[in-house]
Amino acid sequence: MEKKRSWAEPYKIKMVEPVFMTTEEYRRKAIEESGYNTFLLRSEDVYIDLLTDSGTSAMSDRQWAGLMMGDEAYAGSRNFYHLEETVRECYSYKYVVPTHQGRGAEHILSRILIKQGDFIPGNMYFTTTKLHQELAGGKFVDIVVDEAHDPDNLYKFKGDTDLRKLEKLIGEVGADKIPYISIATTVNMAGGQPISLGNLKALRKLTTKHGIPIVHDMTRVAENAFMIQQNEEGYHDRSVAEIVYEICSLTDGSTMSSKKDAMVNIGGFLAVNDPVIFDKARNMVVIYEGLHTYGGLAGRDMEALAIGIRESLQDDHIRARVGQVMYLGEKMMNMGIPIVKPVGTHGVFLNARKFLPHITQDKFPAQTLAAEIYIDSGVRSMERGVVSAGRNKETGDHNYPNLELVRLTIPRRVYTQAHMDVIAESVQRVYERRDSIRGLKMVYEPEYLRFFQARFEKL
Ligand code: P70
Predict the structure, then answer these.
(1) pTM score > 0.90 for this model?
(2) Rg of the chain taking only CA atoms, in angstroms
């Protein structure tokens, strides 16, 4: 019989940061003043912060020590070479251009590869990725499997691409109108869902036939690799590090927001194998980010990142990281709370359509739910539904995605199991009084990535 072991953390806590509880009355006022948008709250008014896992993880003692080893030379910092070597060894990519964070890399990549009128297929959209594709003149096309759009479908690899959708697009527009395929590990907007290696290999075969490169959004690649190790035939005995390397080897380049997997507060990069694209990227980075050996980062940031990459690939680490998210997800399922299934790797995603079925999507059920959870307990979450999906460029109407979700995102190495219990209990309390909850109307809407700064009022 296989030994069942808990996912207990492979570390102990050396330093703590106090958090403070406020009263319900205080929080009602705070969220109203923030236009019912959790992005506009002050962090000091938050008790448990599940807005994002981006830049919010706890660094290790090694990473903090790395900060002291920063070489802050304008050019040729030794920390850059350490980062470059780490990316080559862990992720297989030959050339690295650091950027201040993921969207900096997306900007440069999109500007280099996309021409007006191009199409960029991807395994579901991501907000910043899609915007940069559009600003460069391209159009995003969703080729994720249908299962990904169904929060109750239990398929284990909802990040898989549907090759028929891709073949159809190639048939319609021609391979020369597709500069690359954009593949995310894991798929954030689907609820943190992984792609399988089997699917990626099949995609590689098809794209090679048509001469189309694959660009990898590797923001949460270690988490994806862990799910492959757990659930894909033939990978149970492989380490997460080996699986990550194999995923990267099947792609031609990547954009990375290192603020997630790699557990730094800021940082990212663009990595490619093609020397011509590298040359262009290295030139463009000096316009928007900084010299090609720092790209908007301090030397110390690059050092903490190089160390964080290796830590992110340790089996013990990733097992505890995803284990904690699974613990919260299973607890909520046992309470009968509607969440996206299977549980994602970086957070638990509430299904707001089912949670608040009496609130129609034009009254922003997920935005409403995030505000209500904050009022109940000071737990901050994020809307991932109609507000995030923005407007249709042609008709001007809202895009109405099938997934209307609230994301409870778990930072790495930050919160305890008792925090997970408090979170689940708070969501349960809101669930019990769901019938009394009313929707919102939008009263201010910025032009780009509206979810960050939009304001709402209670109906
Ligand atoms: C989040 C963060 C960032 C991200 C990502 C994937 C799969 C690229 C990026 C961009 C922060 C965020 C961003 C937009 C809306 C809400 C939140 N995701 N690809 O919380 O990287 O932020 O470093 O520029 O998840 O999921 P960066």
Answers:
(1) yes
(2) 21
Burial of 392 (0-12, 13-18, 19+ CB in 10 A): exposed
Residue that is written with structure tokens 């205080």 in the block: 26
C-alpha–C-alpha distance, residues 415 and 50, integer Å? 10
Active-site pick, 127, 207, 368, 409: 127
Question: For atom 13 of ligand 1, which residue has the closest CA?
Answer: 128
Among candidate residues 26, 28, 74, 416, the one labeled active-site is: 74
Nearest in space to 265 (alpha carbons), one of 305, 324, 224: 305
Assess whether the C-beta atom of 345 lies below 6 angstroms from ligand 1: no
How far is the C-alpha of 349 from the C-alpha of 373, rounded, in Å?
13
| CA dist., res. 325 & res. 323, Å (int) | 5
Cα separation, 309 vs 175, in Å, equals 35
Q: Which two tokens stand for residue 216?
A: 């990898």
pLDDT digits (tens, 9 = 90+) for 392-406: 989 999 999 999 999
Interatomic CA distance for residues 211 and 213, integer angstroms = 7
Ligand 1 atom at shortest distance from the alpha carbon of 101: 23
Question: What whole-number distance in Å separates Cα of residue 187 and Cα of residue 181?
Answer: 14
